[in-house]
Amino acid sequence: MKLSEEQKMIRNIAREFAENELLPGVIERDKSALYPKVQIAQMQNLGFLGMTTDPRYGGGGMDILSYVLVMEEISKIDASCGVIISVNNSLVCWGLEEYGTEEQKEKYLRPLASGQMLGAFCLSEPEAGSDATSQNTTAEDKGDHYVLNGIKNWITNGKYADIYLIIAQTHPEKGHHGINAFIVEANSEGLTTGEKEDKMGIRSSDTCSVLLNEVKVPKENRIGEDGFGFKFAMNTLNGGRIGIAAQALGIAAGAYERALAYSKERKAFGVPISHHQDVAFKLADMATLLEASRLLVYEAAQDKDAGRPYDISSSIAKLYAAEAAMKITTEAVQIHGGYGHVREYHVERMMRDAKITQIYEGTSEIQKLIISRSILR
Ligand code: CAA
Q1: Please, which contacts does 125-128 make with residues 24 or more away whose CB atoms are closer than 8 Å?
Q2: pTM of the predicted structure, to 2 decimals
Q3: What is the mean pLDDT of residues 154-162?
Q4: What pLDDT score was predicted for residue 1?
Q5: Per-residue pLDDT averaged across 9-14, rounded?
Q6: Which of the listed residues 199, 237, 304 should we mutate to test ligand 1's pocket, taking the one with most ligand atoms within 8 A of CB?
Q7: Ligand 1 probe mutation, 85, 98, 133, 210, most atoms within 8 A of CB
Q8: Is beta strand 163-169 parallel, antiparallel or unpaired with respect to 179-185?
């Protein structure tokens, strides 16, 4: 795919940043589940937190493909940093820019897009993961404000967010047409966060529950018309899935590059292991999966950039890239043999990190549901 000079430049900036600033501490951050506070501040300076937001609101004004290129480079080295910026860019900033009022954009989007604030997107609940229409969190309409009660689960940036976009049910009798989305400030009375989750992968990103106990939210903080919340969540997730597909692509690319380099250095039976056909064929399969993922992810980004529908292309890209990332990282560990199983060689972390891309922002099974419904419609 032909990239513009500007796209190549932003990719190089991200690549250099990831190699110089993310690589040195990535193993330790994973091991101790340490939130990358310093690195997030550095990414704020580079403008990676609100990349596609209009400069009028403090963003970078870039296209989605540039955002995808940055996600790929960051996730190649540190997928935890990848998800932190993905949520802020595509679930929080994009949603506010597309559907927020002018006042909401001035008050919340501006600091979020410039990275002075961090955002979180709260849809999932203990009993509403894939089945997202079954929202148990309630938002009672009290005239000039709403009162929110409930629990949100597995929230990325949960403890560090300044702003939460919270999905909640106002009119249960209307099903998903009764759901609303709200902008909720972290210091709101009654909002607390649960324990940080001890995860298999993306360990240094912050994930926890968000608990809402009689949280008052002004009416002007509702996003869109009454009952627009579920559509807001779905439309926002369509773009979010491009970000996660790019994260999966980056993880896979990182593992593939390490496996390729290792296969040329490591000798067995008198020759580099890449000379053994079984390893060479593994590498060929990995390269093919990687290239196909890249084409699908870039294509979904270009659909969004061109104003074409991208709900299905984003699901296809996420499904394919996540499944490919799991296969590629698993083979990368295999090629490394015993070394692949220890932290120092990075690929075992990449294999653990790849797993979540098959789960969050819609599991692989949910992507298949969305794709199959569209082709059978
Ligand atoms: N784009 C736009 N609208 C969509 C949509 C999409 N991709 N998918 C569904 N909708 C709309 C439908 O058109 C329908 O609207 P109308 O009734 O107005 O026509 C409405 O949503 C409900 O859809 P369905 O009738 O198909 O409802 P369903 O219950 O059968 O299926 C679902 C809904 C597609 C399974 C949905 O619940 C879903 O996407 N689930 C996955 C949830 C998810 O991705 N969660 C991620 C959590 S966020 C996260 O992980 C962030 C993080 O921190 C990293």
Answers
A1: 125/150, 125/151, 125/152, 125/153, 126/151, 126/153, 126/209
A2: 0.98
A3: 97
A4: 78
A5: 98
A6: 237
A7: 133
A8: antiparallel
